[in-house]
Amino acid sequence: MTPGSIENPRTDSALASSAERSQGSDATLSEAWLTIRKRKFIIIAAAILGIAYGFYQAYTQPKIYESHGEIEIRSGSSNEFRVNNTSLGAANNSVLPSQVVILKSDTILLTVAHDLNLANDRDFMGYKTKPAKFVDIDTDAAARNSVLGALQGAISVSGVTKTDIIHISCVTLNPQLSAKIVNDLIHAYTFRSLNTSAETSKRVSDFLSTSLGDLRQKVETSQGQMIELQKKLGVLGFDPSHNQITANLDELTRASEQAQLNRIMADVRYRTLTGMDRSAMDEAVDPIKGVPNSSQLPSLRAQLDLAKANLAQLSATLGPNHPQVKAVHAQVDELNKVITQEQDRVLAQAKADLTAAQTEEARTNGALDTEKNAAYQLRDDLVAYTLAQREFDSDRTLYESLTQRLRTAGIQAGLESTEIDIVDSAVAAVSPSLRPTSTILIIDTTIALVIGIILAFVLDGLDTGLRNVAEIEAISGLPSLALIPRLRRDSAGEGPGLSTVVRNVRVLSSPKSEFAEAIRALRTSLLLSVAGREPRVILLTSATPAEGKTTVSVNLACVLAQRDVRVLLIDADLRRPTIHHRFGLTGKLGLTSVLTGTATLDQAVQHIAELHNLDILASGPIPPFPTEMLGSDVMRKLLDEARGRYTHVVMDSPPLLSVTDSVVLARDTDAVVLLVRHGKSGKHAIRRARDLLLRAGAHISGIALNAVDLSSPEYYSYYGYYGYSGYGSSGVDSAAWDPKSGSNKGDKS
Question: DSSP states of 594-620 as a string?
Fold first, then answer.
């Protein structure tokens, strides 16, 4: 990073994401390319079949003749008089597609089939001979469907872009028949258009005539209702804002308010007089306004006061028994009596005034309510009149409009004939129409290639065999230790002076071959599979039989022995032992002999002259219960003894899914190698074998893919060096092989 520059985390993450996407895309493309290369013969075969079928189709295609005609759908003068004024100026948007569908409708096609008797035409139906009996498409449904299907396939109808022209073409085996079909189709379509227009106009006229009769009756009814309401209102041209009812209503409203005020004042006066002292009544009468005052209480009260003053004066001068005093005293009593009577009269008068005011208020309110009801009825009548007038106006307008439309529809039928114009009539073709051979070949070959590629990917997806390292590692979850190439029959082990061991062990007969290098790679991976030490007891097994366990075990033991360390090869397959045959040894004494106690390890071990530090422990006699023997304590003790004597112990074992011998042995080993044969082992078998070993507590070092075809494209990246100088594919370097030392000179592996 340069000074002053700043790292951008977003940019870095974006670049990383882009790199991951690019890598994923490249991986997907490379896998697809590998699938195509692997299944190339299927794709090539499909392409060859496509080419062959293309030539066959090109040279056997029938000679067909095509005739075509054109018609124009014009927007004629009838558009000005249409009931529904829809212009045909936008024919390309709405009208032309509809007309194209009509031209290929079953009705018109059946008309053409009837006119030309196509059901009995040899050229059209493809009959080799004339039909034995007449075919009637009206009664024979199968024949009708057959003719319609043939016509729909032979006729092509399409609109010309940005025009009002429709192109019609027909293809048959007869040039004259093709032209007849096109011309008859145009004729049938034109006749249908004219007939449909006339029938449509007639239906519209009939409908409008029927509707007009009902509408005329409705207009007359509405007009009669409006006249009756006018009579009820009293005058024509009634004005609701100026009438006697409204004026009376205003006057009564004001009178009602005045009567209510008078009643309130009378009530106040009456309640005041009844609730006050009689001595103060003469003072409380006058202040009450709005009520007539005819009381004599003030004058009587003045007379009483004067009489009382006179009485007091006379009593003081003349004495109480003086006649004049008694006369004045009698006058005072009479005035008190009169005042009392006047007070009673004032109260009675106030009550009478209150009653009169209440009566007046009630009558005024009653008259007002009556006038209001009359006003409400007037309003309802006015609303009904307004609605009746609107309904009458609406019905009259609709009636006049439909009358005008009826007159227009009457002349529309005569103007529809200008809508269709024949631009070109069909003529018989001079030469047949054939597709070019190159076009047929390109199409058929392309289709065949696509089918071949699809078939290749389908077969590759249905193939459950494991064929590459990435797939095996993904399925098993185990690392790959080595890729072991397929052994081929060659002259490597057929020399006249070679022993049985050299002939059967490829790492000895071809020490510089690809197979030998793969076994050495397996040896290196195994020695590094256990952290901090080299595994001593190594078990080779597989999921299913015939995956190459014995071959790999024998060659691995030999490669380990070439390191100048002591190696013991044990044939632990007590059901089908074959290791002693590979080395030309006897199988009468071996592992079962040691386990049963009939021989010791030293007695059962056999030696070979080619590798002095490699010992072989054959299987021995086949026992009745191999699993019990391999899982016994004696077998454990035997392995412990072998650990003390040998640097490495290599065991060949039966397949995992067939018997449980390998599962039993795996518990006491340092490393387990699971062999997978290229293209043979299935995904489920590998998963099952791995699970069995994991449950047994075995230390699985990894997998080895056996019998790999190095010429296949998916393994070129792994073995791109197989042509490197110094590595031969086969053959024994006689100068380098030393029979006495049991090794190759200069072999430092």
Answer: HHHTSS-HHHH-EE-SS-TTEEEE---
